[in-house]
């Protein structure tokens, strides 16, 4: 259950798309004010995933806007880099993930806690950066 006395803000209740996963219908995803990511499907809320993962064809513009480069299995960005937020609309409510929500600095390296996933149905995995802010 929830502890309202520990929550900062109000609760948003959404219906699950399937009863077997924490999967919610995803209305839209967009970057900043300009790039709309289309063909969205569902979002799986996954506390075991340490990143936000989106379909590769939909993440390309977002990664480019941040000058992100792949180092091994992780995306990194210049630590002083500024870039657009990532917005999700779930059942009519907007959730915004900004720089401080998805960049983790370790020494002189800034890890970008987003990535790509192979997804035929355009599903997204909303992991710890999303849940830490909104759950």
Task: Provide tags for this entry.
135 residues, alpha+beta, eight-stranded mixed β-sheet, 3 helices
Précis, in short:
The protein is α+β, with helices and mostly antiparallel strands and 135 residues long. The chain contains 3 helices and 12 strands.
3D structure, described in words:
This protein is an alpha+beta fold. Helix content is 16%, strand content 39%. Strands 1, 2, 3, 4, 7, 8, 11 and 12 form an 8-stranded mixed beta sheet that branches. A hairpin with a 3-residue loop joins strand 1 and strand 2. It starts with 22 loop residues before the first strand and ends with a helix. The mean pLDDT is 83.
Give the topology, please.
Layout: E1 23-31, E2 35-37, E3 42-45, E4 52-55, H1 56-65, E5 69-71, E6 74-77, E7 86-90, E8 93-97, H2 99-102, E9 103-106, E10 109-112, E11 114-117, E12 124-126, H3 128-134
Parallel strand pairs: 3-12, 4-11
Antiparallel strand pairs: 1-2, 1-3, 1-7, 4-12, 5-6, 6-10, 7-8, 9-10
| Structure summary, number of beta strands | 12
- Number of helices, counting only DSSP H or I runs of 4 residues or more: 3
Q: Assign an overall shape.
A: globular
Give the termini separation: 11 Å
Helix content: 10-25%
**Overall pLDDT level:** 83
Could you state the oligomeric state of the chains shown? Answer: single chain
**Biggest sheet features:** 8 strands, mixed
Structural class: alpha+beta
Query: Using only CA atoms, what is the Rg?
Result: 15 Å
The topology string of helices and strands comes to EEEEHEEEEHEEEEH
Unreliable segments of 5+ consecutive residues: none
Strand content: 35-45%
